Amino acid sequence: MTTPDRNQPDDFDRTTEPETTDAEVVDLETARARRAAGTPGEAPDDEIEDAETVDDAPPAEGGPVDAAEDIPHEVLLRQRERRPILAEWARSWRGIKAAAKHQTKDAGYVLAYHAVRSPKYAAKTAMWAPLGLFRGIGQALRWATAEEGNWHLRQAAAQRGEADVWLKLDARRQRQTTWRWWVIALAAALIVTGLVALALGPAWWRLLAALVVVPFLATRGRPADKPITDRVSEGNRYRKLTAELVRRALTSVQIGAINSAVAKDPKAITFPVDIHRDGPGHLAIVDLPYGVEASEVVARRGRLASAMRLPMDQVWPETAPGHTGRLALWVGYEPASEMKQPACPLLAEAAKVDLFKPFAFATTPKLDQVMAEMMYRNWLFGGQPGSGKTFALRLLLLAASLDPRAEIRGYELKGVGDFAVLEPVMAEYGNGFDDETLARAFAFIEWLYEEARRRSKRIEHYARMGKAPENKVTPELASLKGSGLHPLIAWFDELQELMTSKFGKEAGEILEKVIKLGRALGIIIIIGTQIPDKDSLPTGITRNVNSRFCLSVADQTANDMILGTSAYKQGLRATVFQPVTEAGWGVLRGLGKPQSVRSFYVDTTAAGRIVARAVALRTAAGNVPVFPAERDVAPQHHVLDDLARVWPGDEKSAWNETLCAGLVELRPDAYEGWEAAQLTAALKPFAAVKVVDVGRRVEGKSVTRRGIRHADLLSAIAERDRKRSGD
Ligand SMILES: Nc1ncnc2c1ncn2[C@@H]1O[C@H](COP(=O)(O)OP(=O)(O)OP(=O)(O)O)[C@@H](O)[C@H]1O
After folding, report:
1. What is the Cβ-side half-sphere exposure of residue 160, based on CA atoms within 13 angstroms?
2. What is the pTM of this model?
3. Do residues 255 and 296 touch, judged by C-beta distance below 8 A?
4. 389 labelled as ligand-binding?
5. CATH 3.30.980 given to domain 243-338
6. Spatial distance between the Cα atoms of 240 and 269, rounded to a whole number of angstroms
7. Which of 173, 342, 422, 532 would staple 561 via disulfide (CB 3.0–4.6 Å)?
8. Could you give a single Gene Ontology term from the biological process aspect (predicted)?
9. Residues in CB range of 509: below 8 A, 6 or more apart
10. What distance in Å separates the CA atoms of residue 107 and residue 406, rounded to the nearest whole number?
11. Which of 3-7, 203-207, 625-629 has the lowest mean pLDDT?
12. Residue 254: which region, alpha, beta or left (left: phi > 0; alpha: psi -120 to 50)?
């Protein structure tokens, strides 16, 4: 053997190379004694192991890796889940009511079902009852003769020629038959007495007896495969959740890891808590096989429903707290689409909202109320057309309208007027996707930024006075008249219209700043969008929103854009909802545990009623927003609006002269005889509009005249609107 040169560096791991040592003489007795003593820390001497020394006793099982005592007592106490004294369904009014309602509904249904078929049942009963009577008499007589069983035994004894056995059997039969005939006689006597009593008694006795006896006889007389009553259900509308059903469903969702784990160990799916009633349905908490995440099952809601033979909106898998492999599978008594959502609490006559406190916003599949909050929050609503995002967003505004302190301003950039019903309580409202509305929406965002700056100064002032201990708006400051720190709700529906317009980039940047700054200052930004890609909704905005409601979306990208990165992977999947049929359903994130909820449905008529109450509350508080005059009195007009109306096409600036011609054409009675100078004078009060020199090429020559810029005009309109609304 050549010895490697130790001075040469190399990668060879010398520790594994067996060293050549001189042979050592081992005293076997000593070595065995040493091993038996099991000196701790001493490695077994492998080299000296031979057939004699190998211990072939079965290996002893190791003790528990983590002795339970290693875990602190208080942690153990916290982990010990005590079973509730009362069943889940009996622990809340909601549960009791749901159980009672379910049972009553079922009973009512069964009753009605059979009532309709009662003539058929009566005919069947009349047919089978006489047969039952004869069959009954025959059975009684056969019983009295005590031949059943005995006859065959006697025959067998006769065939074997065992006369004494035959005689014994017959003697036994005779003994039995004697007392049985007595019983029959007694029963016959009782029946005759009964019949006489019935014949002599009042008619209702006979009726009652017939009602009891005839159906009884009919059941004795009917063939085994022909029941008198029809089956009420086919049994696949509601399946009581059983461990077997859950196991079968989970092994049918095509998750390889579940199937292979169950193939190896049928108990790989376990239930840490018994399956129990929970609201109008049953809840199974399931521990999936090792390594399978509950979110993988949540994503296969459709397959799960198919495996259970139930409509999809009856099956609600969710990730459960504890660990990632724990699934909470709730199966309703009926599909959510057939469960009547309770009326929105905001519709109640006395409903009032304090924006500093939670208010009812949605319901879970179990019809539990889910509360939402607005202060110190920004909201993002996303979903494809028909998912119900406009309605959900409007619901927040309706809630805000019931807090008279709240100032509501916003833009609906779709232009259909879904929010027009809120106009009486809004200080600013724009509707449309034309350039003018987009420009106003942009100017509004700029104003919001300024407002945030103003508010931060005010907060600083109040903080110095000790009135803003956390340097943010408090309920007291919000209520303090003149503090300028009341809740300001700024909303934008279909924001993608603005973000993809020429104002988009700048608007996105400013809005991001407002979102970051505004939370503590009482500025609440609410955004609704249909296309949540990064051009339509800058990531800077999505990142800074803390409350999200993702309604039906088409794909994972849209889902994660609204609910946040990895939401889809974590099992928060709004892709499972169908637009239109499941309108209003979505995943709510940011308010406690993320969950699937359905926003309360308030149609436009009902919304009108809420707004009327909001107006009354605001009138009492002296806080009704002041509206631009033209909204109150239709025929009134304003020179700024008229200028916007007659503005020549896409021109960035226009001569006064041209504009005057347009004005005269629009309203001859009001503008007849106007010249450039008159327009300049009329525009004086509006600081934002500056009359400047505007150059034009006319017939090849450059001509300069007095005129105004379009951008200035739009800013002046926005500024005026805000002033009018009493800001
Ligand atoms: N919570 C709800 N419960 C039941 N139905 C609802 C709910 N919300 C909305 N809907 C129904 O869904 C329809 C569509 O709602 P909505 O207009 O809010 O959708 P959208 O997502 O804004 O669609 P689009 O982008 O086309 O406007 C509504 O007309 C309404 O009938």
Report:
1. 11
2. 0.59
3. yes
4. yes
5. yes
6. 18
7. 532
8. cell division
9. 538, 540
10. 49
11. 3-7
12. left
Whose Cα sits closest to atom 16 in ligand 1?
388
| CA 314 – CA 237 distance, rounded (Å) | 10
Q: What stretch of H or E contains 315?
A: strand 315-319
Question: Which residues are CB-neighbours of 552 under 8 A, at least 6 positions away?
Answer: 383, 384, 386, 387, 388, 574, 575, 577, 578, 579, 582, 583, 585, 586
φ/ψ of residue 706, rounded to 5: -75, 140
Predicted confidence (pLDDT) per residue in 562-597, tens digit: 998 888 888 788 888 888 888 899 999 998 888 899
Tell me which residues have their CB closer than 6 angstroms to ligand 1. 383, 385-391, 530, 583-584, 598-599, 601
Cα 391 to middle of ligand 1, angstroms: 6
Token pair, residue 497, equals 């219209």
Which pLDDT tens digit goes with each residue over 207-242?
A: 999 999 999 999 888 887 788 887 775 544 556 788
Compute the Cα dihedral for 534, 535, 539, 544 and give only its sign. Answer: negative
pLDDT of residue 97: 84
Whether 337 shows a pLDDT value over 80: the answer reads no
| Residue 341 assigned to a binding site | no
Q: Nearest Cα to 492, choosing from 560, 542, 544, 442?
A: 442
Average pLDDT over residues 668-693: 82
Q: Which residues of 24-43 are buried (b: 16+ CB within 10 A; e: fewer)?
A: eeeeeeeeeeebeeeeeeee
Residue with tokens 């459709």: 302
Q: 492-544 pLDDT, tens per residue?
A: 999 999 999 888 888 999 999 999 989 889 999 999 998 767 778 888 888 88
Which atom number of ligand 1 is nearest to the Cα of residue 598?
Answer: 1
Phi-psi region of 449 (alpha: psi -120 to 50; beta: other; left: phi over 0): alpha
Of 370, 381, 390, 418, the one to substitute when testing ligand 1's pocket (max ligand atoms within 8 A of C-beta) is: 390
Q: What is the pLDDT of residue 631?
A: 31
Residues 6 or more apart from 722 whose CB is under 8 A from it? 427, 428, 447
Please classify residue 566 by burial: count the beta carbons closer than 10 Å to its beta carbon, then call 0-12 exposed, 13-18 middle and 19+ buried.
exposed
* Phi, psi at 587, each rounded to 5°: -100, 125
The label of the residue with tokens 């699934």 reads 327
Q: What is the per-residue pLDDT for 226?
A: 80
Beta bridge partners of 585: 598
Q: Is 281 annotated as ligand-binding?
A: no
Of the residues 391, 418, 553, 602, which should be mutated to test ligand 1's pocket, given the most ligand atoms within 8 Å of the CB? 391
Find the 415 Cα to ligand 1 centroid distance in Å: 15
Environment class of residue 666 by beta-carbon count within 10 Å: exposed (0-12), middle (13-18) or buried (19+)? middle
Tell me phi and psi for residue 412, to 5 degrees. Answer: -105, 105
Ligand 1: atom nearest CA of 391 is 18
| Strand positions, DSSP E, 531-641 | 547-551, 585-590, 592-599
Length of the chain (residues): 727
Class of domain 629-724: mainly alpha
CATH says 362-536+546-554+584-621 is which class? alpha beta
Distances, alpha carbon 464 to alpha carbons 311, 457, 459, 472, 484, in Å: 60, 11, 8, 12, 16
In the reported structure, the alpha carbon of residue 599 is separated from the centroid of ligand 1 by a whole-number distance in angstroms of 10
Residue 385 in marked binding region: yes
Name every residue whose Cβ is closer than 8 Å to that of residue 47 and which is 6 or more positions away in sequence. none
* Angle of CA points 559, 565, 567, to nearest 5°: 55
Taking the centre of ligand 1 as the mean of its atom positions, its distance from the CA of residue 555, in whole angstroms, is 19
Query: Does 599 count as an annotated binding residue?
Result: no
Q: Which of 641, 675, 639 minimizes the C-alpha distance to 657?
A: 675
Q: Which of 49-58, 118-127, 171-180 has the lowest mean pLDDT?
A: 49-58
